[in-house]
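Lecture 7 notes: from sequence to structure.

We start with a single chain of 123 residues. Read the sequence below before looking at the structure.
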Amino acid sequence: MTNNQHSRRKFITTCFSTGSLFFGGLLFLNCRDKKESANKESEITKESTSEDPCNDLLDISDAEIKKRESLGYVLQSAVPDNSCQNCALYIPPKPDKKCGGCLLFKGPVYAEGHCVQWAAVTS
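Now the structure, written as tokens:
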């Protein structure tokens, strides 16, 4: 009888140990993949600069790029009457610049762009 109790205890301990290692390994692999994919996305965004100054995000931090993405900023508004140029938060471009800005995040902004925080200009 003592032999059966010992083997049952050993079996349960082995099951918990194996299960813990298995789930710990999955958690480790899952966290590692997310971190790598997030780095790849930010590299792609930063490298996607062209001769268009409104698309130049090299001087913008990763946190600011994520902020832009979280606000749903797009380069071209899908709603005709709601674009950055008629938003209360839009900063018009300076005379020597082609791109405007936004009060909510850093970086260049297209006048035709849009985000979820669009606010009508009040007179």
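The chain has two domains: 1-47, 51-123. Keep this in mind for problem set 3.
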